[in-house]
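Appendix B. Worked example

We walk through a single record from start to finish. Start with the input: the chain for Purine-cytosine permease-like protein, Neolewinella aurantiaca, length 471.
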Amino acid sequence: MLQNVSEEEYIEELAGGEYEREPVPASKWKGWGSFLGMYAGEHAAGTEFVIGPLFLTTGVSAFDLIVGLLLGNLLAVLSWRFLTAEIAVKNRLTLYFQLEKISGATLVKFYNVANGVLFCFLAGSMITVSATAVGIPFGMEMPQLTDTLPNGPTYIIIVLVVGAVIALIASRGYETVSKAANWMSPVIVLAFLAAGIVALNQLGVGSFQDFWNIWGEGSEPFPGQIKYTFWHVMIWSWFANAAMHVGMSDLSVFRFAKKASAGWMTAAGMYVGHYMAWIAAALLYAVFLQSPEAQATLAGGQAPEVAPGPLAYNAIGWFGIIAVLLAGWTTANPTIYRAGLAFQTLMPKVSTFWVTILAGTIATIAGLFPAFAMKLLGFVAFYGFVLAPFGAVIVFEHFFHDRFGIRKNYAEFAGISFNPAVLWAWAVSFGLFYFLSWQFDIFLSFVTLPAWLLCGVLFLVLSKRWQREKA
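Next comes the structure step. The output line below is what the pipeline stores for this chain.
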């Protein structure tokens, strides 16, 4: 779902860490091939081993899953192409510097801290994923779908060890590990493909109709899950990476593109990782659901476990264990690194090593609570909902500042560190739609787009008023 290698490392590889506070010069622009490989490998990650099975727990039908993912991922690609890449090649600035010009340095710190905390929780869920692979030889009791707290001392010890190793690697050897992650990505993609093919064999699939019948007309969701329809699948898959495209995080990557058409290369990630890998992982879970153990659990009115390690091991043996371990690790490691960089904006005098250790500690503590992994669909929806509206500020200013009569990059122009128009636009849109979602039990991804649009419009209205008053 999220990149295995962080934008910061990729940018450093492209330009030696330069141009963080200035436009990228033409001599450093890259063709579409640089982005094809990046997105193809980085969106088949540890999260995919969880997301695919979780779709089955929602009772989704074959049409809703297969067609919903097809269209939802297309909308994500279009968002990257016509919003993120379009703005990136016009300004050629990182998200952070672009946001600082508009909102001021103080608000950028607020954004970074929110981003860092959410990154820690995501990394924690990936530590849980890796722990399900490490725990197999030790006979670890796997976390259940409804578990919130650790289920035993073995689980706690394995999570603590895995988390400590990941945090130490992230803090001391990031360059080496990030390069290794690029080499591991094809192995992980191959594992998804192999596992999917083996699972089809185990399910006795001999035709497309057999494949379709795995989901059929859908079913009742498992205990504790909500029922997913076509609209749930399509909208959720569109906004699974909302922070990256409509949230503008990938401005930092596409500022190196020669043309905005490089945005089309995100299709490689969406249809390798967010289509093939999700469906392959769902097939692994479909095999497990036919087992006597899973049937007995369902008969008892409980949801069978969604543990990526055993699912992959059942299909492709030790290769599956290694693939799950690597997938969780190569996602958690750079995620912890990026969280550390975000926290460093509040503690600029603290070394990168120690802020990364801090981020790793928070992530490891989060990994002790399996709910972050078992409720990953909901967490990803929340993540995008929180951060996407910040991107609306950039999008609406870019396309409508002239028409609306507001000054572009107002914080930079006025020399202020805090632009209230940005904060109020985000706070009102977030508060209003989160309340509606909670009060009326509305699927959070359904209100991400309205919140994004409202934030953009409010930013224009408030900016026009406050800029006029200052003038």
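Two observations about the output. The CA atoms of residues 349 and 355 lie 10 Å apart. Residues 3-17 have pLDDT under 50 and may be disordered.
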